[in-house]
## 1
Amino acid sequence: MNFIAIKMLVGDRAKYLGIVIGLMFASFLITQQLSIFVGLMSRTFSVVTDITQPDIWVMDPGVKNIDDSRPMNAQQLFRVRAAPGVAWAVPLFKGSIRAKLPNGDGYNCTLLGLDDESLTGGPPELIPNDGKTPLTMDALRQSDAIFVDAPNAHEKLGDLKAGDTLELNDNRAKVAGLCEITQGFQGQPVIYTTYSRATKWVPGERNQLSFILVKSKPGEDVAAVCKSITAQTGLAAITEADWKWKSLMYVVRNTGIPINFGTTVLLGFVVGVVIAGLLFYQFTMDNIRHFGTLKAMGATNLTLVRMILLQTFLAGVLGYCLGIGATTGFKYLIAAFTPKSQQIMFILWQTLALTGGAIFFIIILASLFAMIRVIRLEPAIVFK
């Protein structure tokens, strides 16, 4: 019976290809939109992703996300260091500064000031200046030294390279090297320097301490250390995972991005249901005499239902695989023609699983009306 079901499916090539193409389009649209959404949302906490040394972030209680910096009094750093369970705590400055290029052009940049002594919070990867000799964080200790993220250095800052100079708020800054980072949600170039240098370059409020990076002592419960810091200082102490989630949810709640992507995903699902459902129902009606013949020969309703499910399952698997392949090809095609800093597609296994579940649901809906029609079928139809 399985062989007969497959022969029936591929025998009508026009409808068979129509069903597969409909499912492929639905799979492509759902996976592609979810992958772009995931990639875009992962940028909302890019700074947290790159700074891996601490396991606790301390900030003003009113801070809503990583870009909502509310400076604290510098004395809070010493109070945090004195909290139970804290192994070390260092300052981090995060602010915005305008870079002026030698040709006169300017660009708003994100400036990160790292602890002068430990340089904790630096970029995850430094690019060797000569392509061979490793570049270390100590290069940041040079006079007026900065690191610039490589994609934006090439695309937005006039193809900067090591040894070039920038003017940052009327201050001379020398590029000590380039680095690879996780691109941010706002797409601004990211510049690293020391904390003391950053607070001097960016004029502002009396308080300039943006965040405090904390590492808990070995064996300590991180959540308990967060509570002890909050109890002792009155500041918000958040684990790395919770801080990422808080930054992400702020964007989700306060922008229309999820609705826009969700609408497109829903459209892909509806298109898949409509195209696959109509075509498969028409396919079943075209082959209704064959099903009637099998029923007259003694095939049970359960057998016929299994045949229909096998047909939709094969079409679904093929459509799903073609859709995922098309999404992957689209990702690499876009990567070939898009600057690295603007590439945001991020295909997760969870996305593939969710798409697979959606396609499975589509084929169940598509086969439902066909199954009802076959179950109600009278074998006598073959004699009419």
Note: The chain has a mean pLDDT of 86.
## 2
Amino acid sequence: MNTKTRHLIDIVWMYTLLAGMGWWAADAAEGSVLIRAGVADLVMTLGVFSFSVWKSNSSAYDAYWSVIPCYLTIWLFHVMGGEGWNWMQWGTMVVVNLWSWRLTHNWARGWPGWHHEDWRYVDFRTQHGRAFQLTNFFGIHLFPTAIVFLACLGLFDVASSTTFVPGLMLLGMAVALIGVAFEWFADNQLAAFRTRPNPQPEDILQTGLWGVVRYPNYLGEMLFWWGVALCGLGAGGSWVVVLGAVSMVLLFVLASIPMKDTRMAASRPAFAEYRTRVPALIPGLW
């Protein structure tokens, strides 16, 4: 058994334990289904934060983003009588799980092991010094958890509703699937680029989707969450279900893309020309 396999086994037992913690917390909590799920999510976030501190590696959290929506669909099936769901409810949950398992697999194949930590977390450790653990909990763990929970609000409406707008539900599932496809092609192209023969550190992926927009994986992620929001609206959810999708767009546009652009410009001389030629997300616009 190689080192990476052993470290992935660590992740599996950690996230299995997190699932048990979340299930227990949801059962112990009082209030609406939404409140109980929120309590469970908070307990699990505290759990994965503890693992991050124990391992001195905040990348213990990285899989949480994609795993938790899968956990949520399983729990909603349990508490909302999923045996009686119609095709629109099942379709939405299947799309969410397709996104979840694909993205988690992509993370797992690219994660080298505990010796690696996301470069953004490394920068935060250097910049924030003794205050890093505050950044670690509130910025690296709690903030993304809140964004994903907000983006999942539509799933509560989908799981519980008895009245649907079929056309809007189909549109939402289609948009979400297009997002998953974008991410699938973009991530596979990036994985092939990273494992190419004779790689040079300054090389930039400029073919396939990466020659059309600089961040097709981010575009796919945003499309997926807009699809989930449309499904929430199609299940009778209020305008609040759109806030998560809006938050995702702001997160990528205001934080992830500027940070990535800055890092790429500092390490790859050809990036400046690539940036002027290839838009970040939308051809002809931005």
Note: The CA atoms of residues 40 and 141 lie 14 Å apart.
## 3
Amino acid sequence: MYHFFIFSFFISYLIIPSIIHVAKTRNLYDEPGHLLKIHTQPTPRLGGIGIFVSFTVTLLLLGFNNPSLELNYLLTACIILFVLGLKDDLTGVGHYTKLSVELIVALLLTIPGNIRLGSLHGLFNIYELSYCSSILLSVLILIFIVNAFNLIDGIDGLAAAIGTLAHLIFAALFIYMRQFELATVCLSLAGALIGFLKFNLTPARIFMGDTGSLLIGLISAIMALKYIEASTAYGLATSANASSAPAMVLAILIVPITDTLSVFIPRLLNGKSPFQGDLNHVHHLMLKRGFSHLQTTTILVLFNGVIILMALLFL
């Protein structure tokens, strides 16, 4: 199954330079100067196209068949968010329009796609969920994680590096549980992200834009839900450690989750929209402290890795 990773990596690595060339030729830049823009040079922001193409072509070409995760719902959701992200990268999309489309995608995945939580496995002393509660909670989780990755895509390399780490860990966990089809999804995305990182690390030659960050968030949210459910079927979430699966997901996604909460909660307390942008994200605060883009990304990835290691050792 590692050929999924290799194939996706090479597709991404080979097509990103062409996307950079087209963006420069057509003058499709993310221009500096806006209050929330911290880069100083005009930079193409269509790298998400390369990530999307690498990921989807790999899954379709190399084959994928898993009754618990039907490819048609997965790819339909990816395509819808790809179109949304592309429009946002090119012309902009309002927050409520974006949220509405994300809601449609989440409902598509949870109801006909049946990608949802059936239980909290003892977390907060809650076990089985009713159908409506399951749908509602799963939709909220999907939307939250999608936006969490969208929000951490604020400096060179961060979203791609965190996404790579998350999906390599998810892949390892799925392989351990013999959920090989789910592992191939994670490896396909991780390969595409590593191929993209070559051009996104400081000084970034291209940004992934919403086209890429929304895709990473979507697949991360789906894999989080699938891991929690699969861990019970495999026997990892026993009565002695019932909440270990949700806790492991929290550890894997600790950076985007904590960063999003750290900006959403103050905004809500101050009577502002949670989607109103500012420069109070953890990576922005680290830049203000004098860290470079590369140093900030490295520190946050290492922090995420340490949290994952602690979860693996103690859960």
Note: The mean pLDDT is 89.
## 4
Amino acid sequence: MKKSILWTLVGLSLMVFGVSVNADDQKEHYYIPPAGFVPDEQTAIKIAHAILTPIYGRDVLEKEEPFVAHLSNNVWTVTGSIPKDRLGGVALIEISKIDARILRVTHGK
């Protein structure tokens, strides 16, 4: 019985030690680029296509080319363009410049 308690305590000690080493490793290897994960318009548009294509389809998005991106308050707003001969809305996505979070996705009618 005493051996089983001893091994349980050893196991728990190793688990606690392992978690603390792992947490230190994560802090040590964490990196955020100085310009954020989405540093420029081209990157924002590429991310927008990657997110919007499975939602709205390649055919819809091709009709809204070219996509443009504007930066305001560290948020990229990427929108499609409406062709001159067409009425309706376009895809819009907001992406955090700092950490690349998708903040909003919508499509006008």
Note: The longest strand covers residues 91-96.
